[in-house]
Amino acid sequence: MVSDKQFVKEFEQNVKSTIKKFNLINPKDKVLVAVSGGKDSTTVLYLLKKFGYDVEAVTVDVGVGAFSEVNLKNLEKFCREQDVLLHELSFKDEFGCSIESAQSLLKKKGINMRSCAVCGVLRRYLINRFVRKNKAAKVAGI
């Protein structure tokens, strides 16, 4: 049986070797990591920072009440502890409404899309626009 420490060590080594093997990130690249506050994207941010890459984090507040607030507070704390700059974008600031309001507006117009599809498209739009504006070489996230 593999110990927790051994698993972590092997996992980190696999991530490092995959980045190197496929030339995913160069040491001089500025990398914006799209983080949701979940364990997957937070792990990506943590590992890239640990490996010495020039990383900044970007998150999108979709406006889902307490859920969004808790995620944002967790991300702010994590980024402060890791000395990573966190950029915060919001649906309300960018589109004038939350994802829930956008979903309602679409339904009123006869467009019946799942909220995950709407959220994914709008979130990707905001992140891609932010990455171009900030001239990052790469964007990472899950």
What attributes does this structure have?
Rossmann fold; about 15% strand; 4-stranded parallel sheet; about 140 residues; elongated; alpha/beta
Present the secondary structure layout.
Elements: H1 4-21, E1 30-34, H2 39-50, E2 54-61, H3 65-82, E3 86-90, H4 91-95, H5 99-108, H6 115-133, E4 138-141
Parallel strand pairs: 1-2, 1-4, 2-3
Any overview of this molecule?
This protein has 142 residues and is an alpha/beta fold. It has a single domain (31-141), classed as Rossmann fold. The chain is 58% helix and 15% strand. The chain is built from six helices and four strands, in the order αβαβαβαααβ. The chain has helices spanning 4-21, 39-50, 65-82, 91-95, 99-108, 115-133, and strands at 30-34, 54-61, 86-90, 138-141. The chain has a four-stranded parallel sheet with strand order 3-2-1-4, sandwiched between helices.
In short:
The chain has 142 residues and is of the alpha/beta class.
By DSSP (H or I, 4+ residues per run), the number of helices equals: 6
Low-confidence stretches: none
CATH architecture: 3-Layer(aba) Sandwich
Averaging pLDDT over every residue, what do you get?
91
Shape estimate? elongated
